[in-house]
Amino acid sequence: MEIAFAFVIGALTTSGVYLLLRARTFPVVMGLTLLSYGVNLFLFSTGRLATGQQPIIGSTETYTDPLPQALVLTAIVIGFAMTAFVVVLSLRSLADHDDDHVDGRQAPPGEPVSENRGGQNQ
Amino acid sequence: MSLPLVVFLPFIGAILAPLFAQGGRTAIAIASSVPSVIALAALYPHWSTLAGGGIVLNTFEWMPAMGLSFSFRLDGLSLLFALLILIIGLLIILYARYYLKPHENIAKFYSMLLCFQGAMLGIVMSSNLLLMLIFWELTSLVSFLLISFWNHKQDARRGARMALAVTGGGGFALLAGVLMLGNIVGSFELDDVLAAGALIKSHELYPITLTLILLGAFTKSAQFPFHFWLPHAMQAPTPVSAYLHSATMVKAGVFLLARLYPALAGTEQWFYMVSFTGMATLLIGAYVAMFKHDLKGLLAHSTVSHLGLITLLFGMGTKLAAVAAVFHIINHATFKASLFMAAGIIDHETGTRDMRRINGLWRFMPHTATLAMVAASSMAGVPLLNGFLSKEMFFAESLALNLPGLWAWLPPIVATLAGIFAVAYSARFIHDVFFNGKPVDLPVYPPHEPPRYMKIPVEVLVFACIMVGVFPAFSVGPLLYSAASATLGGNVPEYHLTIAHGFNLPLMMSIAAFVGGLVMYSQRQRFFDFHARFREIDEKAVFESAVSWTVDKANRLTAMIENGSLQRYALLLVLSVVAVAVMPLADQGIHIGSSGIRPIDWPTLAGAAILIVCALGTAAMHRERFYALVLLSVVGLMVAMGFARFSAPDLAMTQLSVEVVTIVLLMLALYYMPAWAPVESCRSRRFRDIVISLAAGAGMTLVTLAMLTEPFTSISEFFLENSKTGGGGTNVVNVILVDFRGFDTLGEIAVLGIAALGIYAMLRDTVMTPPPSDHGRAWTRDAYPLMLQQIARPMLPLALMVSAYIFLRGHNLPGGGFIAGLITAVALVLQYIASGMVRTQERITFRYHNVIGLGLLFAAGTGAASFAFGYPFLTSTFEYLKWPVVGKFEVASALFFDLGVYLAVIGATLLALVSIGRLSPHSAIKSHKESH
User: Fold this and answer.
1) Can you give the residue ranges of every domain in chain B?
2) What is the value of ipTM here, to two decimals?
3) pTM
């Protein structure tokens, strides 16, 4: 069980890091999402893997560690907020530069650049 | 108590003095002199203790853990310096009153002067080395500000910058040295350090420590090769030059040599480093002074030379030499400060400092001329003046130095040579300025005597020169003895302060210096011609080019690391993490802890397999963004199932609802973004990235495996035990969130709200048009499918009811504010998707900003309510109520807190999504038409 779990985290990290190193914003956002899954699972597993021991008093004999769960719960929500923020950042960058490259560079010369295709910022 | 008072009085004065600026120069000068007068009065009662060989210590704790304390010390050495600082300070204040013009910023000048005075007193009276360093840096800073007082002049700004760079750099070295010293001794208190001389000198780090400390001292005291900043500091107003750059601040370096003499001196390294540096400085300063046409330039180089002399004396390592060094500190301060003030008067009255133009001033200002001539004679070492006495001692010591073989000749020769130059440049100062024909083309003509009171400071100092010169034992004897005793740790050798020691070798050297110097001056034209053959090194240009070279290199390095490419930063970040982790992980290998590995059941294995495949698939297919997103959503769902599998129902529910919102969000973003990513990276680069990400993934796998198989202990026993009794709930995770760690949660929802507001702000004025078609395929014409609308509308009340249920049971069963909030948010998002932006917005009469605010208010208000009952912030309470039908029902104050969480989550989620949804004017207009 532990081996499978470790490989899950490894796979999430691998894919996350690979996408993080891409040049376009959308894959990077997906990479960050994958990484945060990996990190959340990792933090969660610091309480070790227990089955049928949900930390609800009275429901079972023994309970798993509730603290990592509480920490990860907020981490999931915050992670969502951060993902949303990064997505919006990349949208804004797309609007301003007319290009979804992570470095926010303009379209390469030679290509016709329509005057701020959608972006209008005051 | 009185010692900190002495140090801090000038600082208080620095704050208050500018208030008197309105009253004119006299008022502010009087106000500025008050701290010095009080300080002198406060020091007076301690004299009896010091004369008896005692010291006064005032200690207050500051940061004892770091060895930093407010401890002040008064002994002979610090008293000597304190008197120099205070008395010359008083004279400078008076002098500056006449020197500065009424329209100049006198408030700033006096304020900074007092700041400097306080900082300098701090250096000499600190008994804690760290405290001393603070004051040390402060003097460098104030010196920078004072040199650039006339900041409209480029030379002043450059000179100030150079002084700051050199002394600041030295201060940095000194900091390192002092930290090492403190580390060796185990204390930063001066008493401990001075008592640990043998330990320090035998320590293996002594050479580095000494070098670093000497760097600090040498830069501050303008020793070769760091001497160049001092002449350039002469761009400062003359009172500043007289005070900081001849009498006090530049003495801080030699003060440090004296202060740490018992702890550091007496080794070969000390001897060679200090004495040879001193010798080089002595000669170079004296030589260059001869050729300076600028009055202040001559004095500045002469100051460099005299500082070298003092350093050389300390370097010799004999006790008598140290006494001579202390004596020369006093003498140099008196005659050089008075010479600077005289030079300032001349500058003031003639409008120039060029000695080729100011000649024959004797006829115009005989009074000033007399004073300057006496002071200059003292500088040259004329008998019956104080400079003669310490110079004789210096000559005697240079003869007494036991160097092997021919080297023994070096110190006396250097001393005599420097003496010759000193006589020559002093003669030049006297003869060129006051005689030697008529003034040439003066900007102010005719020059006349300065205001009466401007001469008083010069008179006082010149009087001191004569008094010390004629009655040394009577005038300065006790003070010198006390200071020397403090320097040497109590073992003062026998010495005699008399005018003449009979006809001996030192006197011969003096005579030789006089004859040589006068001859040299009479033949000066030849020397000038000789000197003119060499290209003069412009230190300023060299310094500026060194600075710009450094800045250039630093910029290139920065540009190399920070090239503006986010991709590069991400790579460096990941690489550095991998690099840090690779060593320990390689050592450890595959580690299986003592808990061992449990067998896996096939549903879990299948789930893990799907998750791994989908995660890798997301990466592999990232260019086909839509498919990658679908795979990503599968990963999220599998993570949620994983939480459910491993006893975390709350997490599973949270992950599930977050997953829905996240995918909606990403879909929305994808609507505006290109659906395909172009092939950007070349094959080798992709291969490199794959290797890096595999390394990262492998590292995480190993770490996770090692962690999961190790037994552990947790602090969670406490939460499990107290959840029901203390928090009134059986769902421990929820009780932790809203009760035990409620403050944490309050912070989290605040972050959530801030992120949402940030999103709103970023997109508020942005309009984006989505691509006209979905890569070839037209968008569906049915923007809001009828079936979806019809199903979504009745879903809303149902979903709200579910979320209310989930919310209320959260304290005892899986659920709570976070999850309920997300469910509500999902239900509302569904309405937007089904019925469109405009229609939904019309039916939602509140702004999401207010919902976030209300949520935070609820959470914080619940926390604050516990104040009303005299409990700390966020103390919770609970009560059981009997409700009809429902039965026994528990109401915890934490429920209101959770309500805040609920509202904040709804507000933040929807504000973020609606901000993105609103981006497209196209769809908004279209839906607008439809709804009407």
Assistant:
1) 292-522, 730-932
2) 0.87
3) 0.69
